[in-house]
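Field: COMPLEX_INPUT
Field: COMPONENT_COUNT = three
Field: RESIDUE_TOTAL = 1071
Field: MODE = joint
Values follow.
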Amino acid sequence: MHKLFRLAWRNVWRNKRRSLITIAAIAFAVLIVTVTRSLQYGTYDTMESMAVRLYNGEIQVHRTGFQEEQTLTYSMNQDEQAWQEIIDKYREFTGVSRRVTGFGLISSDSASAGALIVGIEPEQEGTNTQFTHMVRKGEKLQTGDDHKVLVGQTLAQNLQVGIGDTIVVLTQGFQNQMGADTYIIKGLLSAGNSDVDRGIMVMPLHNSQDLFSLYDGVTQVIYATNDFRQAEQRARRLATEFNNDRLEILTWEEMMPELRQIIVMDNVSGAIYLVFLLIVVGFEIFNTTMMSVIERTREFGLLESMGMKPGQITSLVLLESTMKILSAIVAGLVISAIAIAYFIYNPIALSQTLQDAYASYGFTFDSLVFAARAQVFIEPLLSITIISFIALLFPIYKTRKLSPIEALRKA
Amino acid sequence: MLATLRLMTTALLVLTTANSSQAQENAMKIIQKSDELMRGKTLAGKYTMTIIRPDWQRSMAFQFWSEGTEKSFIQMLAPARDKNVTFLKIKREMWNYIPKINRVIKIPPSMMLQSWMGSDFTNDDLVKESSIIEDYDHKLLRKEQYEGAATYVVELKPKPDAAVVWDKVVEWIRVTDYIPLKAEYYNERGERIRTMVFSDITTFGKRVIPARFEMLEDKKPGRKTVMLLEDAVFDAPIKKSVFTKQNLRKSR
Amino acid sequence: MKITTKIAWRNIWRNPRRTWVLVTSIAIGILGFLGTSAFSRGFLEQMVESTINLSGGHVTINARGYQDNPQVRFRITLPEQVEAVLQKAGGVTFAPLISLQGMINSSETAAGVQINGIDPDKERQITVIAKSIVAGTYLSSGNGAHEIVIGNALAQKLNVSLGEKIVLMISDLNNELNSSAFRVIGVYQTASSDFEKRFVYIDKHAAQTLAGYADELSSISIRLHEGLLLEETVENLQQALADKNLEILSWKERNPLLLLSLEMYDASVVIVAIIMFIAIAFTIANSFIMVIYERIQEFGIMIANGVLPKRIRRMLYAEALFITAIGALLGFATTGLLVGYYSRNGLDLSNFAQGLAKFGLSAVVYPEIWAFDVMVGLVGIVLVVFLSVLYPAIKASRFEVVDAIHFV
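Field: COMPLEX_OUTPUT
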């Protein structure tokens, strides 16, 4: 066995050109698949995290029943849980913000319309979600603002009001108590979605608590984490931490099942590209190994006529190929890592129009994103290894069928 | 109060249909008489309303004026934070005045199915027009003893085109004086959704009517709204200026 | 030249194994490139379709102001004039729509909804609601005065089943409350429970009665037939209907965020296509280079026998041309068969991932082969072949005879 190993090693180096072509082909396949996957995952991650952070945030904590009923009956007391402690205790939770969400009738002197009223903590909300940044006219809310509100752009237009105008809000708050107050418009929101633009109003948290007779209660607590894909596991941590069955803890996947499906769809389409790519690179590998084995038919005939058993020849070829495949994959992975690192540190810029379009919705998205997580490397590693060995089986099978004389006569 | 009255009249009032049978005619007469008893030409009265929920309850008081089914006016008396909040209803439109913000707001359709002042009644219950009454067919089911009195049990079935969510309404009306005692509202699966119970039969001037109305949501146990008519004057003329938008701001 | 061609043709069949390696590398290249581009064309199309199939079609026409403020008063007052223009323009299918913001009321609870009054038969050609019925039936023309189709999620929220009654309430043209009872005859399901909770469907005439319209409409939804350009059509319609105070909007203008993510997807598809092409080029170049190196001995002998290097180069190009032609034919044939099959029957993505089953119709992708992609693929591959033959051919023809013969 040791002898065979040495022979294989020598053979690999004896014909450098042939070996290098094979190794390069496989390494290149690894590189290409890895970079493609990295780009796919990077793009999906970016788009999905944007969707997650647009409004709902990654994890929401409510009084059990709020998600279903969306009424103020399901509100939580301020001191019920130490919301902030989680942030101090666990590094993976990066932000917490509290909200009050309810419905109300918004009126100007000339018209009125129903709208979703969201009470927020401007600073905290701004780091957890995106929608309060989407101010088209006027200014964003700031900590300390009082009786100032952001109104959907179309809603303002329908009410025929603008920045600095006063609007009246009428609601039914906690325990159905009537709430009414007047506010000054500080900014106009536009999320690029007509439903949002004509149906939302944002105000400071304490104003919304007064309006809805909630005292210091809130309806939602939103957590941001350092990886939105880990939301489920983080949510379980919160559940253990709070240990309160009157709270429901929902991840973005539970709040937005449609988004979840779009992600799956993206992954499936990514996988279909991968299949095509693997067909091409798999064929490439097959071709190269096949040719290098067949090129050597005469050599095998010689070995056999010198007394080597067919089984030994197969083992020899298998060993040689394994050496080549392994070194190719290692080389491929190293080059891929360098390439991906390069793209991460030297991003490929998006076209200016696309950048501007994203910027107008408050998103900073200016270059193609490459992901560097384990999946990116593991998938090509496995698929290419499997394909390489499959590509080997056929030529090996062929060499076994040749008789030495035939082999000698051939080529 | 508006809501109760409207619900009651919805349930009680049924106008004639062309080819009604003998039984239907009897049922119609019962309903008509009961309605005549409960509904004056005008009403001015004071109500207290208690909203009961599994974990809290709240009471309020208001003054109420109505003329026929088309016009009514409400002025809140208590609690203090809602004092002098007023409502005006003319036909199917409704306005609301809130002193705190000094505005008159017209209640839009999207708010119509919201609860009125936190009760089990919706704004729509207050403004429903009598046209809905024409939409019922009625039938005398049986006579039976109820709460120690002989009662007619009348079934009201909405006509096919009627904009009514119920499959049927069943009423218990006292044989001797046509006082309504109970109304049950059913959905199309035969499940009872709402129950109204009338009690505390009291004399107001010349009229003897129930002063206490309870409304229960059968699928939401522990919830009910209780209305108490504390004093009432029937058929006295009410100034036209009461049912005006100007009055929303003025009345205090 | 003729002789060179003949020799080349004979050469490629002298060693069929070698030829098939090259032919298949080209065929696989074509399949890979066209397969991915056809899939991504189809996928993008599907993303657009799944949005416009739910509401509105490619283009909608409505009264100016309606998009921002969908109130009863914004209406198309003379729909027959608009329809006449559409009829004349041709190449489009259209359906009337009355959409009213209102409330739906069951015996247990109420909810805000958008009431869509439709012409059942025409709507069928615009949106997928008719195909999304999971219980009961779709509306049928002529007898729908009190029939309603609602979403599954809404049915659960209101706690109503098939055959049961609900009441719709809106503020009509005269600003008066108007309500009417309907029976649930059908329940539909889409990928989105928000959509299901929001849209209910009744007959056009019932909606017009509710709203207090005569034959006015809220909007007209238009689906463009194959080959009609979106922007151009919108522009033409805007010109034709310029004096009617109407808004004519494409799906792009109605869904700016969708458009944005499509553009993003498009950008990443271009990158993936480039990567794919690099992989193909590498495969082809590798195969050609290896095959030519295998034959260096042969070239040496030819040169030794006095064949001009120019002839060898020409022979190699001719061989490459034949091989490319055969490979391309084979590649187009397999791509045609494979992609053709799926573009007719659809590639159901929910077969690959369980989570997609609920997407129903919208998880099916119909790959599309674009002439542009075929051209790009073909030109690219011919170029790659030429370049990969160029270097070894030059080298082969310049070998020292002795070197070449000894080369193993």
